Amino acid sequence: MYQDERMEAILHYLKEHERVDMETICNMNNVSRDTARRDLVKLEEEGKIVRLRGGAKSPTLFHDVSNYDERLQKASEEKKRIGKYAAGLILDGDHLLLDASTTVQFLAENIQTKDNVVVTNSIDIAGILSKKEDIFIHLLGGLLNNSHRSIYGSRTIQHLTDFKVNKLFLGACGISSDGLTIPFEEEGFLLKEMISRSDQVILLADSSKFNRTYFQKVCGWNKIDILVTDQEMEPKLKKQLDQFEIEIIVL
Predict the structure, then answer these.
(1) Which tens digit of pLDDT belongs to each residue from 157-179?
(2) CB within 8 Å of 244: residues ≥ 6 apart
(3) Where is 20: in which H helix or E strand?
(4) pLDDT band at residue 72, thresholds of 50, 70 and 90?
(5) Residue 224 class from Cβ within 10 Å (0-12 exposed, 13-18 middle, 19+ buried)?
(6) What CA–CA distance (Å, rounded) separates 163 from 110?
(7) Could you tell me the pTM of the whole model?
(8) Percent of the chain at pLDDT above 70?
(9) Contact, 139 vs 126, CB < 8 A?
């Protein structure tokens, strides 16, 4: 068995278990402890595991986030499917908040309703909606993040306090039993305010976001009403969401 195959087997095991010990790795891949140790070192260098005394576990804190264009390409078919479905949750005349996530951009592309008022901090979503009729757009003011194509900062949050909407559609970098997390503190403050300005909060997230935690917590599951995703989540995470009576829509 090649090293990449052995490492994939370890990662597959960790998807179903919290940790793995050296004896399990040796038996699973039919290798010596030295070979198992080298595989773990390689996986740790790639940021895919955390080595422990006698084994390893999956990392719980993530750091890296791709820029907007790169994120737009990742899992694009899943994101398009989620965005198209979510657009069907919008009614004529709804007042909406749309955050600057890539999945929400696909929602914006699929909006067919009329007389909607949209508040957003995404320059790309504002551009997409400007080509549609019967949509009134409020682009939040503030600082422009070039890499993530979004407006942020204290002025953005202050501007947001002037509005109240029917529905918020947002994405998240990380989804775990604790709730939603993202890597950037400023964006976290903005999303918290978006949630407080909305009657209904609808989370759009493909399955690559499951069981990932980032630096800044946005909210717990008590703030989310609907989750639209592309795959069933593991039982432990689903049980957590069920406790808050969140409507889970799997496409």
Answers:
(1) 999 999 999 999 999 889 998 89
(2) 221, 222, 224
(3) strand 19-21
(4) low
(5) buried
(6) 24
(7) 0.81
(8) 95
(9) yes
- Per mean pLDDT, which of 4-18, 79-93, 171-185, 201-215 is the most reliable? 79-93
Q: Between the CA atoms of 232, 234, 239 and 241, what dihedral angle is there, to the nearest 10 degrees?
A: -60
Decide: 218 and 186 in contact? Cβ < 8 Å: no
Identify the residue whose tokens are 């398009």: 80
CA distance 59 to 41: 14
Give the separation between CA 163 and CA 76, rounded to whole angstroms.
31
Cα–Cα distance, 85 to 87 (Å, whole number): 5
In 10 A of CB 226, how many CB atoms?
17
Is the four-CA dihedral 191, 207, 210, 71 of positive or negative sign? negative
Q: What does the block give as tokens for 114? A: 């009329």
* Residue 22, C-beta contacts closer than 8 angstroms, at least 6 positions apart: 33, 36, 37, 54, 55
The stretch 129-139 carries a mean pLDDT of: 95
C-alpha 10: how far from its chain's center? 25
Structure tokens at 178: 């604790």
Contact yes or no for 217/178 (Cβ under 8 A): yes
**How far is Cα of residue 130 from the mean position of the Cα atoms in its chain?**
26
In this prediction, residue 63 has a pLDDT band, given cuts at 50, 70 and 90, of: low
